[in-house]
Amino acid sequence: MHARRVALSLVALVLGVFAPAARAAEIGVVGDITWGQSEADIDREVALIEESGARWVRANVNWRWLEPDGKGKIDSTVLAQYDYAIDKARAAGLEVLMPVADAVPYWASSDPGKYEDGSGKRVWNIYYPPAQMSDFAEFTRFVVEHYRAKGVHAYEIWNEPNTPWFWAPGPNAAQYAQMLKASYPVVKSADPSATVVMGGLSKSDFNYLADVYRAGGGPYFDAVGVHPYTFGEDPGLTSNGAGAGQDRGRLSVDVFPAIEEIKATMDAFGDSDKQVWITEFGYSTTSQDGGVTPEQQADYLVRAYRYVEQFPWVHSMFAYQIRNSPFEHDADDYEGQFGLTTVGWQPKPALDALEAYAAQQATHSLGELFARLAQREA
């Protein structure tokens, strides 16, 4: 443990002595280790995540990349890249949440406008849902059977299906419920111990969640995923709905505390025993709209983790993301500046803040363990 980490641990120990014990959500981060990065970058990123004190990494598999040319035709090169990343993460002691998500291959797509041009190039909208949900289910079966042996036991079914960016031509809760119904049984068959997380909803979209329940999707997930981004607003800010389609009698989907509306919806449909996984949240340090200063990013990050300590039904929180998107090259825009470091690994204050918070929570956990041992011996 280097000097910086020792200092953070000492600060956290002092804070832990005086701070009240709370049930904290498990700390996770979204990584880019399965985004086609070099092995050197994967090694560096896994080491950084381990050092941060995070317990979990969110690392997706991309259907379009892994099964591009037909059902059952797995790209061995892509699979080897994924395996390298997951093996490194597991060797570092990290738990893995694996979204099966992001893009539908040409052969499986329901895009009515897809075509091949004269050169054989395939042209399609990769975010149209599959024409046959059974194709997605069989791919998911392969993923779970393959990664169960590597210690992966948590899977997220798709990503932000309530947005047109990930579900073309627009959100359709009934279609998404069919995806859950097709994939949940095969996950459980391949790995009975696996946790199936409903694809993280963009913002706390409790109306979409209710529609999934109404479409019969409730029995086909073990937890609800949510992405409570606030576009740079303080995570403690609260307000009721005011925009088009929002309920003025409930919290706005745009505020962080609206995760309570997600839980209220789950309770209303009889799922009070299930938990919420915050599979993405974060604050961009862009100077453009929606951005915060690096110091605010650090403050808001920890305040969000502290906010959910009052809710034992929040299982985990995954900070988006461990470094700025490698595809954005540190561009000063909203999508390009969510990292706790730059693309070139220069740390922002948020990285120190996460380390200190994680160390403090570890201190609390150790204190609780000592207390239980003392009670046992009394």
| Domain tally | 1
> With helices defined by DSSP (H or I, 4 residues minimum), what is the helix count?
10
Note the gap between the termini. 35 Å
Oligomer: single chain
Q: Look at the structure and name the CATH superfamily.
A: Glycosidases
Task: Show the helix and strand layout.
Blueprint (H helix, E strand, L loop, with lengths): L2 H16 L7 E5 L8 H14 L3 E3 L2 E2 H4 L9 H16 L3 E7 L13 E2 L5 E2 L9 H16 L5 E4 L15 H18 L4 E8 L3 H9 L8 E5 L31 H10 L6 E7 L12 H14 L6 E6 L29 H29 L1
Parallel strand pairs: 1-2, 1-11, 2-4, 3-4, 4-7, 7-8, 8-9, 9-10, 10-11
Antiparallel strand pairs: 5-6
Helix pairs in contact: 1-10, 2-4, 5-6, 6-7, 7-8, 9-10
What does this molecule look like?
There is one protein chain. Strands 1-2-4-7-8-9-10-11 form an eight-stranded parallel beta barrel, surrounded by four helices. Mean pLDDT is 92; it is low at 1-21. It has one domain (3-13, 25-377): Glycosidases (TIM Barrel). It contains ten helices and eleven strands. A hairpin with a 5-residue loop joins strand 5 (115-116) and strand 6 (122-123). It is 39% helix and 13% strand. It has helices at residues 3-18, 39-52, 63-66, 76-91, 133-148, 173-190, 206-214, 259-268, 294-307, 349-377; strands at residues 26-30, 56-58, 61-62, 95-101, 115-116, 122-123, 154-157, 195-202, 223-227, 275-281, 314-319. The chain starts with a helix and ends with a helix.
